[in-house]
Amino acid sequence: MSLYYEPIVYTIPPEEEGMLLKTILQKRMNISRKLISKLKLTEQGIMLNGTRVYISVKVKSGDQVEIRMERERSDDILPEPIPFEILFEDEHLLVVNKAAGMIVHPTHGHYTGTLANGVVHYWQAKGELFRFRPVHRLDQETTGVLVVAKNPYVHQHISEQMIAGTVDKRYTALVHGRPELQEGKVDGPIDRSPDNPHLRMVTPDGYPALTLYKLEEVWNGGSRIGLKLESGRTHQIRVHMTYIGCPLIGDKMYRITPDDAAQRERYDQLDARMPRQALHASELSLEHPVTGGRLTFYAPLPEDMAEMQELLRAQYFSE
Fold first, then answer.
1. Are 132 and 116 in contact (CB under 8 A)?
2. Residue 124's closest CA among 73, 89, 69, 71?
3. What are the phi and psi torsion angles at 158 (to 5°)?
4. pLDDT tens digits, residue range 220-256?
């Protein structure tokens, strides 16, 4: 196995002739200063037409700029044969459909049994060497599309897309009740609860958070909602749905106790049938950082949410 990942290549167009290689790396290939500094320390990190050069040289039309990153290991993650579903994989990206109950990355008290443990084992079994770099997170009980970068260049580029708002993340939720509007937005700043550091709440002094929603199906006991995140705060969808009076079915952390006895009984019945919050990352779209082009990944509704949806359809009259 090569000590380097496959090179990322950029061909100099005529209009960029005479520019400094440093400018090409930063402004055309969008490589961070931190990564450039790291590449300069390796034998084949930055190459021009197959030759190692200083980044102060000027480039010509047709020149081939290559960057090669050294392969890295996840030595701090114990490989474990944990099954997971792959939606897409190439030399640069791994996209999975995360299962409910699975923590993404080892944390204090959870060093094993995570998605990272399973992915590292999977790569090791294939004789491949990558460092586990998730570009975003999903709550332990939230299912769906999750993207893992295989090198720092890809991680940087997707992270920048997320900051710029060009990564389109869509979710499906089953909630108690229904929003007042067929579609709308929840614009509510979020911060930690002063009473419990593990909880989040909408507060005027919080961090900006915007969630777009669209009502997809309605029953007397609840509704199915499609959501799009315009920001990425912790527990954002769960907090925002509770804020507008439509907590996620099965969400024990952000549930509401209705004053009406019949409604309270209906909430309890549905929550008892759903072992987790009914939230699923159903779709994610991004620009491929290396090969170009927009990619969209879909994850079907998981079995427990599909069963809850059928229960609602069967026991509660649709509107």
1. yes
2. 73
3. -70, -35
4. 889 999 999 988 899 999 999 999 999 999 999 998 8
91-115 b/e (C-beta count within 10 Å ≥ 16 → b):
ebbbbbbbbbebbbbbeeeeeeebb
Phi, psi of 84 (to 5 degrees): -155, 160
Q: CB within 8 A of 257, min separation 6: which ones?
A: 264, 267
For the chain, helix, strand, coil in percent to 5 are 25, 30, 45
For the beta carbon of residue 84, count every other beta carbon within 10 angstroms: 16
In this structure, what token pair is assigned to residue 138? Answer: 């999903």
**Residue appearing with tokens 């079995």:** 303
Which domains does the chain carry?
8-67 (3.10.290.10), 72-164 (3.30.2350.10), 169-281+306-315 (3.30.2350.10)
The whole-model pTM stands at: 0.87
Q: Which residues are catalytic?
A: 139
Per the structure block, which two tokens stand in for 229?
Answer: 């995140």
Of 158, 120, 190, 177, the residue nearest 284 (C-alpha): 158
Count the residues in the chain.
Answer: 319
Q: Is the dihedral of CA 263, 171, 187, 194 positive or negative?
A: positive
